[in-house]
Amino acid sequence: xxxxxxxxxxxxxxxxxxxxxxxxxxxxxxxxxxxxxxxxxxxxxxxxxxxxxxxxxxxxxxxxxxxxxxxxxxxxxxxxxxxxxxxxxxxxxxxxxxxxxxxxxxxxxxxxxxxxxxxxxxxxxxxxxxxxxxxxxxxxxxxxxxxxxxxxxxxxxxxxxxxxxxxxxxxxxxxxxxxxxxxxxxxxxxxxxxxxxxxxxxxxxxxxxxxxxxxxxxxxxxxxxx
Length: 226
Hints:
Structural class: alpha+beta
Keywords: Hydrolase
Order of helices and strands: EEEEEEEHEEEHHH
GO biological process, one term: nucleoside phosphate metabolic process
Oligomer: single chain
Pfam family, one: NUDIX
Distance between the termini: 51 Å
Protein name: NUDIX domain-containing protein
CATH architecture of the largest domain: Alpha-Beta Complex
CATH topology of the largest domain: Nucleoside Triphosphate Pyrophosphohydrolase
Largest sheet: 7 strands, mixed
Shape: globular
InterPro entries: NUDIX_hydrolase-like_dom_sf, NUDIX_hydrolase_dom
Low-confidence stretches: none
CATH class of the largest domain: Alpha Beta
Radius of gyration: 19 Å
């Protein structure tokens, strides 16, 4: 059996290479086993939340319930992707649940009485500190939406059976990683195979470095406003 990993990876130097509204890029000099230092470039992010908004269907068939998905244009892939309602934690010290509630109203025109934590995920740990908390929202009601801007002005809300969303993932039709994680987790909870966590569960993975630096610079409450 291999010995347990014990090396403590420490960054002895850090420099910010790029500072942009919703992210930054820094380079750390990290001590490797044996004492050598290696450079690691890290994209800093505020973190984000996403919501699986679920309304039940046939009580005898949990998979017949529907979830609200949004089709949004993403310049990175030059496509409109089917995704969960979601948003960045870009307001200083905003609670994750409050951000999720705000984004659900803004993107889908919905509010929910019942909220649970489905899953926390690190989207690209090889180069980015972004972490996302995905919620399950139930007991839904329609609420007014504020006027949308930019890509969101082109956004379309689609109600999709949960079982169809799972099948769409397997067919390669839903490719957003946050949506994939949230949909699979919701299917587990709705089926009764798993239990969602309470919203009081700490979001220990939430990135702090970019937000704390902006706050220290006097930027806020909107941390994107450089």
